[in-house]
Amino acid sequence: TERRIAIEKNLNQIMASGITINRIDAFDANYIQQHQVPGSIRSAEKACFLSHIKAIEMSLLQPGPALIIEDDISLGPQSIFQIQALIDKVSLSIDLLFAEMCVSSLPSMFQLYMLKRELIRENKIEVLQTQLFDFAGATAYILNHQSKSKLLGMIQKIKSFDLPYDLVLKQLILNGTISSGFIFPFVATLTSNSLNTDIQLAADNLPNVVYHSFRKLMYID
């Protein structure tokens, strides 16, 4: 409930004209267990995966690109305009564009930290190649119109859920099946609710604090 209140307040404050907002009723672990959804990942991860599929399916009902965000994301006052400008710039050359993501290696963190200082100084935003960094996450990403059906067709073929959704995306990106980039500095950021989750294990809390803090540090605002 807290997440829903926070994200609706955020979107209502910053949303631009011509943008339609749709809320997805997410699947939950109870649904997964009742329907005996196959796969080796945990029920919460399967539910997250199915929820992303549902979001992409809903995005097909409307033309144009779709920004898909999870409920622990916040957008800044200029985020929508920055995303729109970059979508126009990259056109159809990129299937999937991350608005923010997890970076999990120290060399990559240092490289991006130094690059952010330079870009902020020059008042620039760039689209960087995702596959050049050790990345994870699917909290906020944009699909261009043609790529919605392309990605959906691939992930709908999965019959056993043995990898979390973000790692399936990572595989598709690294093997060149879908093209990807990420906006940098990030134009979306994690909320204070992001560490309070059913999907991550308690044992992951310490590294997650580090990764989450870095992601917030790389936010443009």
Which secondary structure elements does this structure contain, and how are they paired or packed?
Blueprint: H1 2-14, H2 29-34, H3 43-59, E1 66-69, E2 73-75, H4 79-90, E3 96-103, H5 106-122, E4 126-129, E5 135-143, H6 145-155, H7 165-174, E6 180-184, E7 188-190, H8 205-217
Parallel strand pairs: 3-6
Antiparallel strand pairs: 1-5, 2-7, 3-5, 4-6
Helix pairs in contact: 3-6
Provide key terms for this protein.
221 residues; alpha+beta; two-stranded antiparallel sheet; globular
Unreliable stretches (pLDDT < 50, length at least 5) are: none
Radius of gyration: 17 Å
Shape: globular
SS summary, helix count: 8
Oligomeric composition of the shown chains: single chain
* Percent in strands: 15-25%
Helical proportion, percent range:
40-55%
What is the strand tally?
A: 7
Largest sheet: 5 strands, mixed
Would you list the SSEs in sequence order as H and E? HHHEEHEHEEHHEEH
Structural class: alpha+beta
Mean pLDDT: 90
Query: Distance between the terminal alpha carbons, to the nearest Å?
Result: 26 Å
* Spatial arrangement of strands, main beta sheet: 1-5-3-6-4
